[in-house]
Amino acid sequence: MNAFAYRVKRLWTLCRKETLQIIRDPSTLLISIVFPGILLFIFGAGINLDSSTVTLGVVLEDTRPQAISLAESLANSPTFHVKTGFDAKQMGDELRAGRVRGFLIVRNDFSERALRQSPGTPSLLLVADGSEPNTASFVAAHVRGAVAVWQREELKRQGRELKGLDIETRTWFNPSAESRNFLLPGSISIVMTVVGALLTALVVAREWERGTMEALLAAGVSRFELLASKVIPYFVLGLISFVICVGLTRYAFHVPFRGSFAAVMLVGALFLGSALGLGLLLSTVLKSQFNAAQAALNAAFLPALMLSGFVFEISSMPAPIRAVTTIVPARYFVVAMQTVFQAGDVWPVLIRAFEGMSLAALGFLGLTFLKTRRRLE
Amino acid sequence: MNSPSPAFAHVSGLRKSFPGEAKPALADINLQVLPGVVTGLVGPDGAGKTTLLRLLAGLLVPTSGELSVLGLSPTHDTDALRDSIGYMPQKFGLYEDLSVMENLALYADLKGLFGQQRAETFERLLAFTDLARFTDRLAGRLSGGMKQKLGLACTLLGTPRVLLLDEPGVGVDPVSRRELWRMVHELIAGGIAVVWSTAYLDEAEACDHVVLLNEGEILFSGAPSELHDRVRGRVFLLTNLEEQPRIALKNARRDPASMDGVVQGRGVRLIAKPDAELHPLEFGVSAHATLNATRPRFEDGFIDLLGGVPSAESELANAVAQHPDDGAIVIRTHQLTKQYGDFKAADEISVAVKRGEVFGLLGPNGAGKSTTFKMLCGLVVPTSGDAEVAGVDLRSSASEARQRLGYMAQKFSLYANLSVRQNLEFFGGAYALSGKRLKLAIERMVSVFELGPLLKRAAGDLPLGHKQRLALACSLLHGPEILFLDEPTSGVDPLTRREFWTHINGVVERGVTVLVTTHFMDEAEYCDRIGLISRGKMIATGTPDDLKAKATTPEQPDPTMEEAFIALVTEAA
Amino acid sequence: MNALLVRLRALIIKELRAVLGDKQSLRLLTMPVILQLLVFPFAATLEVKNNSIAIFDQDQGPTSAEMIQRLSETPAFTKIVQVHSEAEARDLVNRQNVLLVLRFGPNFSKSVKAGSPEPIQAVLDGRRSNSAQIALAYVQQIVGSVPLDAQPGPTAALIVRNWYNPNLEYFRFIVPSLVAMITTLSALIVTAMSVAREREQGTLDQLMVSPLTPSMIFVGKAVPALIVAMIQATIIILGGVYGYGIEFQGSLPLLYACMVAYVAALVGVGLFISSVCATQQQAFLGVFFFVMPAILLSGYVTPVDNMPHWLQTATWANPVRHFVEITKGIYLKDAHFADFSRNVWALLCIAAVTGLTALGVFRRRLG
């Protein structure tokens, strides 16, 4: 057998060993198959920026027909579940207790002023719960809209017309503007970061702890073989979890998918390179399963959640934190996934993301290679 | 470099230190490994055995000194040496979730063994190790002995000329250990060199050449017989005793001419100082006792090398309250059984231990002694049968009964990041000692076990021997009447072990009952009575001499404890 | 002193020494607090700042110019790109160079003058639809502020006030939630991992052989978790009040009292995990499997109100969700006990159920 064929054969053997271990170790399969399913399900069902119905208090200081009609129109809106009251102070208590997310005070001079369109003190006061900022802006926007609609209809009944400036809005890629459509593809980044880092954080450390690393090294396994035999099988396993995630997002949660299969696989493959690289680096440096897993949690999961732009807009962060995000591989993955899913294969965006992920993968794997030792010290 | 000497490995002036450690792991090591012999690396845990083997295998780089294997440097010619060195790490380097065949195939591939040659090698090794029937079994499901054979088989792939075995005898029952020795002897007959590391001194006896390591230095290097020669004519057996052997030991050791003594069956084994004569009878040993010279053992030589053991008296006896000598039975079990699925870990075990007795549970790993032990101290609930300790069932009235027990486990379960004092304070508090009583109890233990200078050190940083002392101190703080010891001396050197037993004898004198498990056959000699456990069953009980008598045959007129054990286990199976 | 108290005291002192005496674990308990306190309030924001907007101005009239001028003055849009064709605009959105495009039709200024303004067209990037909508709301506000000559006076005047957080600043929402977030991880690690560690090191057997009972051991594990949680919470609150200038509105003793209930629930969960796991690694995975969903479904990332009803009901079993509500309530809203008593009861129920189950499993494992 020539030298090259022998090398290939050795690598193949090591990969097969790793694969057999994967198949026989329930915890690996739990991490790579069951866990992504559960997580994605949580993201799909639980992580949502669209308020569907909000409980809104309406305080009627004015009980004349006009005020009642406004309250009714709010109550008929699908966005609000209306709780009517007559005392602003009492409603304030409700707000403090979180039983309403905001309340609209209809002042006692509302009926006089409502349709006269004369200047003066406004007769509607909306108090929103700022402790939930996202919901608070939602409430304000929708109350404003509902009031405008009510006003237009009231005027129309009186035969008058209200002329104002409109903005006609189209939302590309996601016409119904459902947050799930961009959150779910983004959340795959969190799932894959965690899966990739956890899987590999445990494997190298496991070889050290069980004493088999010594036997492998004594059998003359090279650094490259050692690293490659850890990367290849877990890469394949990671791709399987990735396909599961993409499939669930597309078919179970019905997120539109406009890109090509090839592009999405490329995105997944490049990202896995960096996620596995990070995990391997941690476990190679720390050599203990426990420490490696804990470090993986801090170095992979939290940044992926907070700094990837998956929920929180990167451009809104202050400059120093924006700088930090450039070394978070999940950031590139989130952009690429959102694009592939919703916009399709927009190559300029994808290529930029590929560059980021490839650099991260090369960096982590390269560092791991440098840190891998043929000896025990 | 082509050495004209026949040695397969040369080590000279070797030194290895690790960063952050003040003392070098190995210092000034000189060694020749010859083909056709077994070179034993012998020493307690932490002596530097593993470091030396790893250096020979090229897994570590020496700090200074010379090292060559088959004329090459393990550091620089790692790849060239790969096929010539077979290295079996501790725990055998097996993948527990791969089958026997998969493990073999993995290492065969890594060593470039293919085609016809591979098939033949597999066949030969499987026959040699008798594993052919188990090729599909996962390595993790093999018994300790089988794992070790498989580890050896993997090491032997690719026909190595130097075999480095790191503690191959740990966790293996005496029967399997014997078989392993048989295999190694076959191998050296084929002209290869074997380095075998061990913490068991009795294994050293079977090596052709022994290197005795202690704290990174070589104490002795030569044939075991040379060590025997040092003490030849100075080892005696004191027999026909009327009193308890441990009392006799204590008295005999008052003789300034003695440098060491241990209980052996109903007698006492003594070593005289060079050019001194023993007169034990003058120190209170009963008048009918007789003193006869006996065959020296490796351990005798080792103790002599270290200059003997200072004293056999423990201050502990004065620090512990006297318990009544009423001969009451304090530990009693009746058909104690523990079943895990189909597997009976302990099968109808019945024991009765009297107050003031030292009772030993003896058996190989996995035989069920640990399960039995845990049922006795309430850590495992039996499937059926009863266990009573100090007259109460531990399951029902836990707290108050446990107040009367002391417990010390295999790994000296201390809180590693607490200091010595904090450990003592905690264990005292756990037994409801507080204020003055706690202070007094701690002071007593600190003085008995000489822990004073260590009080502020973290327990985890202590050397093994000190850990063991601290663990014993913690278990005795509250003055228990029954002491449970689970493999209390595994891995410690013989001196520490003697010191330990001196303390135990001290408390037993005050009427404390001791239940101890061990897989050291010679340690069983310290027990008044032994229960032999094999495959979950108690196959024999009796005094050490009783058991030896049971195993006496015309071929084996004077069996050692290990020989008796093997005979009784084989007989039972 | 009573034997029980002596034993408990010994256990608690030992646990505290084990946690606080070890440099590595101490670092693990303090580093995340400081890092998260420094980074998260800045990073976790749903406000829109520093974004780019494209304008396709076919009108080039005075009104559109006025509006563009005003848009360029807000911090939400630091970059305004003028485009000259629909294709160009499309390309910018595709590449995510801009978040939204505004198009003023050719007759826009004229139509405004004529008193029947034609609508402005906006295109949003749906890949980031939430930010785009928030950005659009800013645009609406700005556009609405430009006086139109023919506008028939103000429409129904609605004034919006945001209590507890007048400018809807995200850090005011994040910091109180951080109190819950950080105490969660450390309390779980202190309990779940420490039991597993004792099991691995063999000291658990030592405890079980002593007169200490499982319930005493549990209490021993709970107290350090509580103390660690209190210290961490105090650091965050101090950081919140003095670093971020978020005034503490409610009653501090009430918050600490609620923390006892919360830590009890976490300790219950932690002990439950540790009672079913044999090794530290398993315990770690167990903690992880619990913490991830618990944090994601706590209202920290996105509001609980937005979840489907059945899931909202399911989050009653999630202690983090309750404590997030409590901390936010007390810190920002000066909530009274009656306002969140149901959360406290829920926490106590979780503590009781998990703690008792853990005790049961713990005892049975001895068998």
Overall description:
Chain A has 377 residues and is an alpha/beta fold. In chain A, 67% of the residues lie in helices and 8% in strands. Chain A has helices at 3-24, 26-46, 65-76, 88-96, 110-114, 133-157, 179-210, 212-218, 223-252, 261-286, 289-306, 319-325, 329-343, 347-371, and strands spanning 54-60, 80-85, 102-106, 124-129, 167-172. Chain A has a 4-stranded mixed beta sheet, with helices on both faces. Chain A is elongated, with a radius of gyration of 28 Å. Chain A starts with a helix and ends in a 6-residue tail after the last helix. In chain B, helix 3 packs parallel to helix 5 (144-156), helix 14 crosses helix 15 and helix 18 packs across helix 19. The radius of gyration of chain B is 25 Å and the shape is globular. The mean pLDDT of chain B is 85. With 367 residues, chain C is of the alpha/beta class. Chain C is built from 14 helices and 5 strands. Chain A binds chain B through residues 1, 6, 9-10, 13-14, 17, 20-21, 24-25, 210-212, 214-221, 374-377, and chain B through 18, 54, 57-61, 78-79, 82, 85, 87-98, 102, 105-107, 109-112, 114, 138, 154.
